[in-house]
Please model this.
Amino acid sequence: MSYDYFMQAHVHGEAQEIPTEKFLRIFEKYISQKDDSYIDLYFDELNSCTVYMDTGEPTNSGITINRPCADERLIRCLYAVMQLGNFVFYEPDGKHMIALSIETEQHLPEDMVETLGKPLVAEGWEAFLEAYTNNRE
Model:
């Protein structure tokens, strides 16, 4: 069984392109394998996952985390990604999209907000961790 998390960045309703090297720097000490379309992350024998993105492209506007583990090191990496731009985090069974600032909402595509609702704003690490941990229905 597979489960995914999604993270997307937007500016003025369009994709916000972030340098791929910035994503890779955040994850670099946990990368166990890298391909053109993904990186495998390994935290320990019980915690690993796959992050999908175009690693060969100069920029990306989002990532998908497949089989996310519960390791706090992954959560800290995702929090660091959120700080790269106007990112929202969401999951299929999630109660809310999560953003780090109120300003992020103005950059989201209208149909995204209509479909997923307004993002929950989690300012700071503790608020993000709380929202992330308690986001399932």
